[in-house]
Amino acid sequence: GIVHKARQDQMPDDDTPDDLLEGYLNTMKVEGRSQKTIERYEYEIGRLMKYLNISTRKITVYHLRDYLAHEKERGICDNTLRGLRDIYSSYFNWLQRESLIDRNPVVNLGQIKVPKKKKELYSEVDLEKLKMHCKTKRDLAIVLFLYATCCRISEVVELNRDQISFESRKLVVHGKGDKERKVYFDEVTAEALKQYLDERTDNCEALFMNKRKKRFQANGIRVMLRKLAVSADVNHVHPHKFRRTKATVMSRHGMPIQDVKEILGHEKIDTTMQYVQMNDTDIENSYRRYS
User: Fold this and answer.
1) Of 143, 218, 253, 271, which residue is most buried, by most CB within 10 angstroms?
2) How many CA atoms lie within 13 A of 126 on its CB side?
């Protein structure tokens, strides 16, 4: 684009973007944002600054449009572009609040529309097939635990055996931004966990262990689930789908959306609303009940 051509002939000013970005990243650390989130923001904003090659204070909406158009030409999907816009909006908002720039260039950058697609959920049959085709007690315990607790995979792999209370059937996990919350599980999941832990003779403190008797990592669990999907003949099996499915089931059974939000560990109820999928029958039944 015209802006891209112009930036190639321009060298950065003394107020280098890295200095401003470092201040923003430090603010995120102080606010308790997760390391994963901080690294993503640093990477994406860094890519933008490298492409533009100008002072942060001189960036306009035209530069941002040029960069996002360039990304779209590379084949980046609209959903990812919307995520980038959100990152830039957060960064430039902070710069403006800190009086480091006069105007946020993202203000005039229109929202990126993304077609709404319903995320797939596991059916009751899918869940039964997955349970039936688990080849080990460990795999069955993982499948049941993911569904019962609504935990993120990153939360599950950090758990230790001594965190499990079979008496109360609840435990504390550390979610995004290291925020603590309580999650719960049922008797069936408790029994599966007991059977799995009872057969172990190792000294590994991790709740779930791999074949090398080390803590089972997220990628290892994803690979296990992909293999299970093939043997059980269930499409698109991944950890987050258990979380989304359970949230929808709880909501359809009448759990208030505020309670679903707390179990999922969401900051905003809008995020929870995106998880819960209500069908026409649910909506009609709710109308009949409350009208």
Assistant:
1) 143
2) 17
